[in-house]
Amino acid sequence: MIRPFTLARIFLSMLCLISSAACGSPCDYAVVSETKSPDAKLKVVVYEMDCGPSAGSSTQVSILSSSASSPSGHGNLFGASDNNHAAPLGSKGTIEIKVNWESNSSLSISYPKNAQVFLRKPHVAGVAVRYLVVP
After folding, report:
1. pLDDT over 50 (residue 126)
2. Is the separation of the CB atoms in 45 and 22 below 8 Å?
3. CA-based radius of gyration for the chain
4. Is residue 120 included in any domain, yes or no?
5. Is 88 among the domain residues?
6. Structural domain of residue 34, as residue ranges?
7. 20 lies in a domain?
8. Were both Cys, which of 58, 79, 85, 87 would link to 119 (CB 3.0–4.6 Å)?
9. Please, what sign has the CA dihedral across residues 59, 65, 71, 77?
């Protein structure tokens, strides 16, 4: 006879296997821009993360070493969506995010005021970030 505790563990293990196999990686990623720091040691990548109609898309920003491959997943610095079309889209169909290296350790990021921001870190990888909201 199987104990109830063991049966529950088997059930949960099977559920985890089924859900992870069914979900996989449902998001697509497209690089919008990539800009190296003045000393070329780092790069800032702006990219679109599209997870389908139910989850929607968002614009992400990550700071990476200049030799790193294109990012996936959420950005490590900034993330925003168009807030149900409240923020204007740029020429590439994404919200207009502009990045500018001010020095090797300083970066500015501008984004539309109506964007729905869900990640906005003040610094990553030794780089201080100044945010500018554009009307």
Report:
1. yes
2. no
3. 19
4. yes
5. yes
6. 26-134
7. no
8. 79
9. negative
Residue 32 in tokens: 């919008």
Is-contact 86 112, C-beta < 8 A? Answer: no
Q: What count of other Cβ atoms lies within 10 Å of the Cβ of residue 94?
A: 23
**Which of 113, 61, 125 is closest to 88 using CA atoms?**
113
Question: Beta strand pairing status for 127-134 and 106-112?
Answer: parallel
The model's pTM is 0.79
Could you give the CA distance from residue 79 to residue 12 in angstroms, rounded to a whole number? 33
| One-letter amino acid for residue 51 of the chain | C
The upper half-sphere exposure of residue 52, i.e. CA atoms within 13 Å in the direction of its Cβ, equals: 5
φ/ψ of residue 123, rounded to 5? -165, 150
Lowest pLDDT segment from 2-11, 24-33, 35-44, 119-128: 2-11
The total domain count for the chain is 1
- C-alpha closest to that of 51 among 60, 38, 64: 60
- Is residue 10 situated within a structural domain? no
Contacts of 105 (CB under 8 A, 6+ apart): 126, 127, 128
Angstrom distance (rounded) from CA 103 to CA 128: 10
